[in-house]
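Dear H.,

Thanks for agreeing to be a second pair of eyes. The structure we're designing against is below in token form, covering all 139 positions.
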């Protein structure tokens, strides 16, 4: 495994994921968090108090994401960007889609929010997968 490329890719996808989250959840689609029930969400002020943890865990998640890519590298079909997109799709199917699809059945949460999360994470998984595919290459 190429540790230098893992760290570079991790920092880049962490930055892009953070920017994507701010742009989508914080600006463009923040209306979904106003759908009932709203008592589930922390206030913006409370979220600001947790930013060090949110960012630290985001970076840790990015490192894990890229490390799993590096670990499974030879088994992922395709080359370069296609390999990364394939990995992003696989992770989305296993993680996000399977984790969120049943959420409205056992949690009091707006179905629109869950659909938004599924679509949003699909787009993000493909983007960061493509980035990893471009950056991380084994020799």
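And this is the sequence the design step returned. I haven't edited it by hand at all.
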């Amino acid at each position: 495994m190429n540790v230098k490329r893992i760290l570079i890719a991790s920092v880049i996808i962490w930055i892009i994921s953070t920017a994507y989250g701010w742009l989508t959840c914080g600006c463009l689609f923040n209306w979904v968090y106003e759908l009932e029930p709203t008592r589930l969400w922390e206030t913006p002020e409370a979220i600001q108090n947790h930013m060090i943890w949110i960012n630290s865990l985001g970076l840790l998640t990015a490192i894990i994401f890229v490390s799993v890519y590096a670990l499974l590298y030879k088994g992922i079909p395709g080359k370069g960007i296609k390999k990364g997109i394939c990995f992003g799709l696989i992770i989305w199917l296993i993680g996000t889609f399977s984790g969120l699809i049943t959420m409205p059945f056992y949690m009091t949460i707006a179905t629109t929010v869950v659909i938004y999360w599924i679509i949003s994470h699909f787009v993000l998984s493909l983007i960061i997968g493509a980035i990893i595919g471009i950056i991380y290459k084994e020799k």
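Two observations from my side: The mean pLDDT is 92. The chain is about 75% helix and 0% strand.

Warmly,
E.
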